[in-house]
Amino acid sequence: MATTIMEVYIRLGKEDDLVQLAAGDDNQDLSDSLVATWYTGESPNPDDLVVVEYTDALIWQAMDYTKPMGYCGGTIGYWSEPSEA
Known about the structure:
With 85 residues, this protein is mainly α. The protein has one domain. 41% of the residues lie in helices and 0% in strands. The longest helix has 13 residues, at 28-40.
């Protein structure tokens, strides 16, 4: 996922900014954008209709009580069993 995210930022012309950020420069906007992209899986390009990553987005780990829509959570009928405490 990280490679895909970096490729999107490079296509947006952010390669030099990424290098500077990795070297320790302060770029709060880019930092916030990277975190948002990693958690949501959405492209940082507002004109891009493609999702960078959906099922591996960090939001699903942060919200462990849910799962991506359309993603099976277990075997057939798993939802009818009581959840583990």
